[in-house]
């Protein structure tokens, strides 16, 4: 093993350990101007701070707190102990900050607890196994949520009739709504953390992540290009810098091929005849359901430079392309750090 590879692996493991320590202590275009990270490193490609006018303005563990969010404002009277989640990305945030919800929804094409989260939080295996499935993230069962008698509900606005759902959920318990989608994962992290009473902890996590991403990217160098490719159903897509995994690459300062520098939307569909748009020095790809041959059997696949150089690497679909949260971001950072050289 080379010393450079060892450095990357050590950095990735250290980052995961830092995230675990914090926990113990406690798909549309980007319409907002990106903000600079408060930690050393490159400017993020996605919004980084608390959304303007949102949050409570309170520090960690201060209750009651009134949280301004994307459906209004909500008073959280005491530290929540029975949280229901309506978004897998918010499940990621809650676990990263040390909270195991009593109920959650299943993501499209995914289980209630994605494998990457089960692996990251083995200490919560029993509690996660007992977590109640309250339906789909776009149409949860309000009755199932009510049956759990939560003291806090977390939802987002993406992909649903958010106003109607919020009205139903807020009649059950205090409810906080984030913006949703991978583009807004950082600001959603901070807003969910505020509702849980852990905004300072979340900001420290984000600062450490930015610093680690910058260090990992410096080890790779700024000239090596990395491509992101996903196949789900009959769609083949490349992902740009305002996608979730694209934002991690941006924080690392990793170069992207010219075909993947678009910022109008998180992804672009390509046909089998346009597969060359997915080529780069390194190609990270995933197929929903794990059937890699859906990509690797395409006629142009063997002609890709990354393939011929054995630089085409299958990655876990869940953290790279399905779920957007801090532990998913650490998973992407670790995989890129260990793979690209």
From the helix content, strand content and strand pairing, which structural class follows?
alpha/beta
Query: What topology, given as strand order, has the largest sheet?
Result: 10-9-8-11-12
Full CATH superfamily name of the largest domain: Nitrogenase molybdenum iron protein domain
Which spans of ≥5 residues are poorly predicted at pLDDT below 50? 1-42
Q: How would you describe the shape?
A: globular
- Count of DSSP helices? 13
How does CATH name the architecture of the largest domain? Answer: 3-Layer(aba) Sandwich
Mean pLDDT: 88
Terminus-to-terminus distance: 12 Å
Task: Indicate the percent of residues in helices.
Answer: 25-40%
- What is the domain tally? 2
User: Which CATH first-tier class of the largest domain would you pick?
Assistant: Alpha Beta
CATH topology of the largest domain: Rossmann fold
Helix/strand order, N-terminal first = HEEEHEHHEHEHEHHEEHEEHHEHH
**Most strands sheet:** 5 strands, mixed
Our estimate of the beta-strand percent is 15-25%
Could you tell me the radius of gyration in angstroms? 20 Å
Q: Could you walk me through the main structural features you see in this protein, from its secondary elements to its overall organization?
A:
It is a single chain. The chain is of the alpha/beta class and 341 residues long. It folds into 2 domains: 34-211, Rossmann fold (3-Layer(aba) Sandwich); 214-339, Rossmann fold (3-Layer(aba) Sandwich), CATH 3.40.50. The chain contains 13 helices and 12 strands. The protein has helices at 3-25, 88-96, 115-120, 125-130, 142-147, 162-170, 185-196, 199-220, 244-252, 293-296, 305-308, 317-322, 326-339, and strands spanning 65-69, 72-76, 83-85, 103-106, 132-136, 152-156, 175-178, 226-232, 235-239, 267-269, 282-287, 312-314. The longest helix has 23 residues, at 3-25. The model is unreliable at 1-42 (pLDDT under 50).
């Amino acid at each position: 093993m080379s010393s450079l590879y060892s450095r990357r692996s050590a950095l990735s493991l250290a980052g995961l350990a830092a995230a675990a320590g914090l926990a113990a202590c406690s798909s549309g275009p980007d319409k907002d101007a990106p903000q600079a990270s408060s930690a050393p490193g490159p400017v993020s490609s996605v919004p980084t701070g608390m959304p303007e006018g949102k949050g409570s303005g309170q520090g960690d563990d201060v209750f009651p707190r009134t949280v301004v969010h994307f459906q209004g404002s909500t008073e959280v009277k005491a530290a929540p102990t029975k949280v229901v989640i309506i978004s897998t990305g918010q499940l990621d945030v809650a676990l990263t900050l040390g909270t195991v919800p009593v109920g959650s929804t299943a993501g499209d094409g995914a289980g209630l607890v994605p494998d990457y989260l089960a692996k990251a939080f083995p200490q919560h295996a029993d509690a996660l196994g007992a977590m109640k499935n309250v339906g789909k993230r776009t149409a949860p069962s309000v009755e199932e949520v009510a049956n759990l008698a939560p003291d806090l509900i977390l939802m987002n606005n993406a992909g649903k009739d958010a106003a109607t759902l919020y009205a139903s959920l807020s009649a059950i318990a205090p409810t906080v709504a984030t913006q949703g989608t991978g583009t807004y994962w950082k600001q959603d992290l901070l807003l969910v953390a505020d509702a849980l009473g852990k905004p300072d902890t979340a900001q420290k996590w984000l600062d450490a992540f930015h610093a680690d991403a910058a260090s990992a990217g410096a080890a790779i160098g700024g000239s090596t290009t990395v491509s992101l490719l996903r196949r789900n159903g009959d769609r083949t897509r490349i992902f740009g810098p305002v996608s979730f995994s694209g934002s991690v690459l941006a924080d690392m300062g990793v170069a992207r091929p010219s075909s993947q520098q678009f910022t109008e939307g998180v992804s672009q569909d390509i046909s089998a005849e346009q597969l060359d748009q997915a080529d780069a020095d390194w190609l990270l790809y995933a197929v929903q359901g794990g059937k890699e041959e859906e990509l690797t059997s395409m006629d142009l696949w063997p002609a890709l430079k990354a393939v011929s150089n054995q630089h085409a690497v299958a990655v876990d679909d869940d953290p790279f392309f399905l779920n957007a949260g801090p532990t998913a971001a650490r998973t992407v950072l670790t995989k890129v750090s260990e793979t690209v050289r």
